[in-house]
# Entry
Amino acid sequence: MIRREAIAWPFASSAMQAAFCLAIAALLAMPFVLHRLHAPSLAARMSAVPVAAGPYSFIERQIYEEKSDIDLLFVGESVMWVGVDVPQVAEGITAALGHTPRVLNLGWAGTGNDLVYYVLRELLERRHVRHVVLRLHTVDQMPVAPHPESYRWLCDCGDDVVLPALSVLERASAFGVEVIGGPRNLLSALRPDLVGASPFADTLGYYPNEKGYWNRPYRRLDLAPPVLAPATVILGPATRSRLLPEHVAEGPYQSSYGRATRDLLAAHHIHVTLLRFPARSEARATTLPVASEEVARYDGATILAPEPRALFQHLSDIEVDELYYYDDLHMNRNGSKYFTGAILPALVEVQREIDAQ
Amino acid sequence: MRSNRLLLAVLVVLCLTAVGILMLVPSNLLDSGLVYRGF
# Structure
């Protein structure tokens, strides 16, 4: 038999009980109050994110302080952030086309079309971008839930085209996300966050990660990438069968932000390229599963998807391991330099066609 | 006494609302987002 003891009433007085009620009410009301005050700004919200979660101070400066046009922008989650060596891309395009392009990698930790939309919306309001490269996801990486850091910047404000159109349940979920971010955003509204120089400015946003595969010791390799003809990397009618589209339950929240991103890029007449990174487990494969919804969403976009078997044909399994870290998807410095070098001729070709338009 | 009951009712409604809303927050924000320690 379980002995139960009476739980003491937690409040010593009615005043204490009323204060507790007021504290909960204030937390629940905080998103409404911050909307009303239009505070903190999205710039302030971004500058409050720790650098370990992404180069947000770099992203914030690129959006709100820099003014120059951008020729080629890689944007998206961590696989993009660690996977494309943009200084190498800039050098390659300069050597091939004779002009120095402005290339950036705006990537971060965590997946989500929501953050891609927010960053692009803010950026395109202020800077002219000619070519955007987005990640074509592996099937198991298609985003479903809000971005893990969305409590910092998600705001059901008047200029968000997605949240007001969602179902009541989805909007309530987004409101819950705003509630848990309320106290931190209130702090940003009360006093600014002091942002230092970004450690990612020297690499144009790219994160050359020096970690070994699944926490093994890292060893720097200088592997020569294979020479892949642009026609074998840029998918066309003859190579389109390399992609194996599958239905993936994306969820209304992320699919809505995905469509909003597509519409935003179309409204700014920006050339869109989808880049499919090979997972470690696909190293010897000749086909690549993708989400049919994502491919259909960007119908007409350029797709870069090198065949993994050709990409890694000269490497042993141990050498392929040394191109990755953290998990099956993320490339370390070795991998990003190898992969970037392999797709560079195709990227140059796409950039040459955009220049000619 | 009546005001105490009213206050109790307010407390119950607020707590249930807060718990209900937090239950709708996706778990990836609660178990990784809020305690994120680096990448």
Q: What stands out?
A: The interface with chain A takes residues 3-4, 7-8, 10-11, 14-15, 17-18, 21-30, 32-34, 36-39 of chain B (CB under 8 Å). Chain B has a mean pLDDT of 80. The first helix of chain B runs from residue 2 to 24.
